[in-house]
Amino acid sequence: MHGRSQTYTVKDGRIRVLCSRCAKKRYVAIPQGVRKKTVRCTCGQSALCTLNHRASVRESTSGKAFVILLNGRECPIYLCDISLGGVGFNVPTQYSRTIANGQELRIKYRSMTGSSVLRKIRIKSISNNRAGAEFLDGRPPSF
User: Fold this and answer.
1) pTM value?
2) What CA dihedral angle connects 103, 108, 110 and 115, to 10 degrees?
3) Using CA atoms, how far apart are residues 89 and 129, in angstroms rounded to an integer?
4) Dihedral of the CA atoms 21, 24, 27, 30 (nearest 10)?
5) Is the separation of the CB atoms in 131 and 88 below 8 Å?
6) For residue range 24-41, what is the model confidence (pLDDT) as tens digits?
7) How many CB atoms lie within 10 A of CB 66?
8) Distances in whole angstroms, Cα of residue 135 to Cα of each of 51, 52, 77, 119
9) What is the pLDDT of residues 12-28, one digit of tens each?
10) Of the candidates 131, 111, 112, 115, which has an alpha carbon nearest to the alpha carbon of residue 123?
């Protein structure tokens, strides 16, 4: 446990915390959906923990891409991050109403090697112009 907020990865519904004062180690149960939690040690030291529930590492990225809508039109987007399970991107304001939660679409982008990649996605969250989607095709990502 440290004086500042530290990020912990949740595994099997718990985190392993080490007290910075007494060096005591303990496991703390974390309910699904909790993003921050204050943990107090038996010695009295407390720490704010930022919790990461992701199963895979999210890689920050940037670049242009396209979401192919149900009607076949291509909507330009800006990639923000990518992981084994999904992708995060920004949608231009004029296209923000064309994308909704639960939609199954396709995304087209260029990988770091320059090859064109086309993958199926499902929109999981959309807030303002920021969207998050999960990959549906089960392939490993092409960065």
Assistant:
1) 0.68
2) 130
3) 8
4) -10
5) yes
6) 999 999 998 899 999 999
7) 15
8) 23, 19, 16, 7
9) 999 999 998 999 999 99
10) 131
